[in-house]
Sequence to fold (178 residues):
Amino acid sequence: MNKESSLIQLLKENDSRTIKKIYEDNRKKFIAFASQYNLDGDVILDVYQDAIIALCENAKKGKLDSIQSSISTYLFSIGKFMIFQLLKKEKKMHVVDDFNLVDYEFESYEEEKEDTEIKLLQTAFENLGEQCKKVIQLFYYEEKKLDEILNILNYTNKDVLKSQKSRCMKQLKDLIKK
Fold:
């Protein structure tokens, strides 16, 4: 089960620590993102809190089970939709049906950059050898201590394992740079 699936499961279970972590991890980025719409700070926080509630409800309904984006990206899309609805309601935004008439500039958001970096890391990780994958998986993803990895992978010397981990990380960094 990957990290996003685990988070979704915890959201379904209404795990307060997970909800709080998602809330805190995304709050500043969302406020910065929403500020471009010239909304009052309190309104932005209300929208953000409503988006968090909608995220939790959607998780419970199973709507997040097959999402292709990160939870943060999904949360931002909910918030953006809510902002647009609010602006439309207040007549501060005019919805144009013919997008050919609109001159627009592509906006690059931080979460899109993060998604690209994650995909790059995943691709590089897949190109590693099996032993490197195991070492990195156990150390970084499963947060095992070197002594535990030593036993799991049957290494005879902790220094050899440290060297292996170091070589694997260098190889991973080199693959990412390509």
